[in-house]
Design a protein that fits this description.
The chain is built from 5 helices and no strands. Helix content is about 85%, strand content about 0%. The longest helix has about 40 residues, at about 25-65. The protein is an all-alpha fold. The chain has one domain (about 5-110).
Length: about 120
């Protein structure tokens, strides 16, 4: 398998930066892996925080048998109005990191392929 194909597959389908690590670009691979991991962890943490906050609001209403679809919609709308700024930034950062990793793995792989011919 060509180095460019292997790099793209690993960085695109497995984890950003893994293709760089396999192709011998340790610095760029480690930077991409760390960035992807940090943004992914922060994104998951923030989403789980929001879910737990909603569950804490919903459980008392369920215990009182006061939860209906209108109340649930109101709770979800109120929670969404609080802003999803950090989550959006993390998601865009993770997507950007993934795209950069794929492009860089392709570039490095092509360079390795041309040197081996």
């Amino acid at each position: 398998m060509k180095a460019s194909t292997r790099g793209i597959l690993l960085s695109g389908l497995v984890y950003p930066g893994l293709g760089q690590l396999i192709l011998g670009r340790l610095t760029s691979g480690v930077i991409l892996v760390i960035f992807a991991t940090v943004t992914f962890v922060v994104l998951i943490y923030r989403v789980v925080q929001r879910v737990y906050g909603l569950v804490e609001q919903i459980l008392p209403l369920m215990a009182d048998n006061a939860l209906d679809i209108t109340t649930l919609k109101e709770l979800l709308t109120r929670d969404g109005a609080g802003g999803w700024g950090v989550e959006k930034i993390c998601l865009l950062g993770l997507i950007g990191c993934w795209l950069i990793a794929i492009g860089h793995a392709y570039y490095v792989g092509k360079k390795i392929d041309s040197q081996s011919n």
